[in-house]
Amino acid sequence: MKHVLYIVFMILVATFFWVLMNFFEAYKLENNVIPFAGLRLSTWLENFRSLAFLGIVICGFLSILWYLLGQWAFKFNYWNKKFRAIWCLFLVLTIIVTAILCFLTINLQEGTILVYIFYFINNFFTFYLGTLLFSPASVKYTPLGAEYVRHW
Amino acid sequence: MSCFVIGVGGTGAKCVEALIHLCAAGLMPDNESLYALFVDPDGANGNLERARNTMSDYAKCCEENLGVTNLFKTSLAIADPDVWSPFGDEAKPTLGKFFHYNTLKEENQAAAHLFDVLYSPEEKETTLEKGFRGHPSIGAAVLASAVDFGNQVPWKTFRQSVEQSIGEGGIAKIILIGSIFGGTGASGLPTIARLIRNKLAGIQNVRIGGILVLPYFSFKPVEEGGIKAASEDFLTNTQAALLYYHQKATEHSENQEMDLRSFKTVYSLGEAQLSSMKTSSLGGQSQCNEPHFIELYSALACLDFFKEKDTADGYPMLAREQESSITWSDLPNYEELRLKLEQLTRFSYAYLTAYRPMLKNIAEGGSQYRAPWYIDFFKRAKLNLNDTTTRDSLKRIEDYCTSYLQWLANITASTKTPTVKLVDYNTFAERKINNEVIAVDLKKHGFDLNSFDNLLQSEKKEPDNGLNNLWARMCSAKVKDPNAVGVGRFFRALYDECGKK
Amino acid sequence: MKGFIVAGKSSRYQQILPLLESAVLRGWKDANVVFSKFGTSITELPERSYLKAQSTEFYADPNINKKTFIQEVIKQAHPDNLTIIITDLFQQDADVNQITEGVKAKYINGNLAVGVLGCKSEFKGKIFDVGPKAYTFEYDSYDDAKRFRPFYVLALGKHSDISNYFDYVLKDGSFLSEPQPLIFSRHFAEKLVSFNGATITEISKMAEVENLIPIDVKDNRVKQFSIKNSSDVNGSFSIPLDFKALPYTIPIKPQELKPEISVFKCGTEQNPNADQNNEAEAVRGLNIKANLNESKIDLKADVVPTNLPDIGIYGFQIILRPSNYQMPDWVINWNMDGGKVEEWRTSPNDFNGATTYNLKPFLTNLWENTLQIHNPKVAELYCYIKKE
């Protein structure tokens, strides 16, 4: 039951960033980006929403995968394995996903940096917060900074 | 304080060792404390040494603030001195010296002549620092003269503790354990029991029990000359001893000092097939025999004695189902026994294989995040691993767990026939090489990590994930008992989680 | 017109006469063609008797050959019909204004069009009513096309009817020498130019949006933008618009179109009647440059957010009109130099019969009347700009 609950919480974290993306970031971008000629702002925003959603889904999946590995795949009999390296690898994957999204996003005249920042926030923190707060018990302090935040 | 155990001789010491392990598992009755005392002229006896170490480890572990739990539940008072020798500090005592034979010859020739009749010159002159050499006649005479409840420690303290226990409204349950086929045990058991009974005559709330251990092992003849114990004499000695006890128990005598109906309850334990001990020795440190399952039975007999409020007179009986094997169901009260021993075994196993090494690694600078339980129980509780108090606590638990698992493995491997099917000791112990006899020692290079849930199975099962699951539970464990404090919270959590599957 | 019938030849004038009817019959189903001859008076020609105009006897009728009053024809013409007048435009009293007034009153004011198809034909004979003193000159064009004398097919009616009629005449009139069609009306294109099918090719500092007006309003004259409220950055966009000019219309020269911009501030649901006070300033928020290049209008817009007083949505109406027109060269070339009439009086052999007296003033007058009344526009566009 606890496992289901934690995974649901991870999904909620991803959902939070989806809501943030849809209602705050999209609004901000609407007022701050300028597409190139021939492209309407609404079309560009649609492109952004789709890619950002994909990024959040992928990074949400990564956090759930981390949970599954930490709970059922990793063996703590061999406690000297460096599971943090695996977590860091996943974290790097979120950055790679962000880079890919940046590449796939339709070019803008202005506001590109803001778009990249939003991609990074969505993807990185979906994974980071999900794992920081809801990693399974055996690896609950593996995410960087978790031992200062997590008390449950 | 209401439970008193006196281990007489080497066998008595080994049985007390077993009892200590059962105390660690929480098998003693609730709200009882234990007073332990050894009687052995051979203070350097290897068996005695091991038992004393175990008792000392246990006593230190009792100081850990574990809260209300079965682990190290029973408080232990160790007599001071913990070993009583009738010869005191005499380095090379002899029977002749003890009874001042030379003086006796000059002052009381009749007594001296009686002395000559009863004891051979060899018996009078053989040094007794390694025990009574398988001659109960020597021991009985010495012990009867040496015990003084008035001024001599530890007997004075023993008497005072018994009187205090009775004074608090409880029943003082005193049990003596020893072999009846050797020297010290055979002579000490009836003698000391009688002396105790005589001293406490008239006091109602005293129960005295005796565990008479019959032959269960054999050894090769000792090379040294002089009087010595011989395993081929065990059965003969046992027969004679049992006959003696029976006669004295049934004859009616108005001379209370000679009345040997001292024991309210007597447990007789033995094994038809004698196990070969790895060393043959007259005594001293070299007399260090591996634990045997009979000692476990003896300890269980102690528990049985301590649990009964009103012990009926008589002889409790126990047998096993199969001649060729001993399983859990052959042990008395095996359901509770198995449950608690399993928990202690899992605790010891887990601590030695995963938790203690991890703590050592962290103390040497290893990453802490790998062990969330470390952060929960140590770091956040501000317990420094390099602090002396913490370090000592961790060490003493480690020492105890090591001695417990070693004892458990040897109990299980003590005989080829019958086969003892209590624990799969191969997961954490291995046979010593180049020895003809069976002896086991803990593995040097890591335990089998896939058999945690099947430690107490005798047949091999599929690899399990028990240790992994324990780790996960430990990483979210909470200890709500306010009496569990400091490092004790960690031990308590580990022990509690080991009780779950 | 008698001189256009040249003995021994089939002049172009003669050849076009039957074409005038056939063009109607081919261009319109169930059309009813009525021919008339006019001069002093107007006489209807029954059935195919109009073909007698191909012979000189036709012109001997004293009821028509004494004076030429084209304005009478115009008076009698019905605006619902397509009226075709074949004339050399040499009018009694040489007063073309009378013609112009007539055309203006009945056609131009009525949103109808005037078409002129200039043709040249062989001529041998007298040319009457030359100049204000109505001189007569003898003229022979011989076989020299440069000396052919112009005559005109005036068409009065709907622009589309005139255009259609000219199409058929020209299609079948390959024999015609230098035909020059020209239509005066308020229409320059089939439809007013809009954003339909146009894509912005450059945009800077502003974004094209589509949520400023209700989403169910689909109007291809409208484009919507948003621009940030920034003091030092102007936005701009360029967009080529499709322009399909109607044939035979007067050329637009120069090619720069004149924008007329008006602005209104859009109200909100809470305040539908937005403040109108700052519109004078707001109109300077949008600058338009539009150039006509063959089939495209290159529109470039600059948005100056600092001239938009407040944050909100501004609606700009942009009307593009030609800034000027240029009469085709043939009008100038075929126009008789009035100053030389007296000179020719003394040297009749120098008379240039290949020109028409007062042609240019007549046509210019017609066009200017059209301009004055209709002020034709090429495009009508709307831009909604949201200042954020």
Q: How far apart lie the N and C ends of chain A? A: 16 Å
Helix and strand sequence of chain A: HEHHEHH
Biggest interface, chains and residue tallies: A-B, 18 and 21 residues
Strand content of chain B: 5-15%
What are the segments of chain A in which pLDDT stays under 50 over at least 5 consecutive residues? Answer: none
Radius of gyration of chain A: 17 Å
Poorly predicted segments of chain B: 256-260
**Mean pLDDT over the residues of chain A:** 93
The biggest sheet of chain A amounts to:
2 strands, antiparallel
Write the SSE topology.
The complex is a heterotrimer of chains A (152), B (501) and C (388).
Chain A (H helix, E strand, L loop, with lengths): L1 H31 L1 E2 L5 H33 L9 H22 L3 E3 L1 H23 L11 H4 L3
Antiparallel strand pairs in A: 1-2
Chain B lengths: L2 E6 H16 L9 E6 L6 H16 L14 E9 L10 H4 L2 H7 L1 H10 L2 H5 L10 H11 L8 H13 L4 E8 L4 H16 L6 E8 L3 E2 L15 H17 L14 E5 L5 E2 L16 H15 L17 E2 L7 H30 L8 H8 L8 H25 L6 E2 L8 E3 L8 E3 L23 H10 L11 H12 L3
Parallel strand pairs in B: 1-2, 1-4, 2-3, 4-5, 5-7, 6-8, 9-10
Antiparallel strand pairs in B: 11-12
Helix pairs in contact in B: 1-2, 1-11, 2-14, 4-5, 7-9, 12-14, 12-16
Chain C lengths: L11 H16 L7 E4 L3 E4 L24 H7 L6 E5 L8 H13 L4 E9 L2 E7 L4 E6 L8 E9 L1 H14 L4 E8 L17 E3 L1 E4 L12 E6 L7 E8 L13 E10 L13 H4 L3 E8 L2 E8 L8 E11 L6 H5 L7 H6 L12 H16 L4 E9 L1
Parallel strand pairs in C: 11-17
Antiparallel strand pairs in C: 1-2, 3-7, 4-7, 4-8, 5-6, 9-12, 10-11, 12-15, 13-14, 13-16, 14-15, 16-17
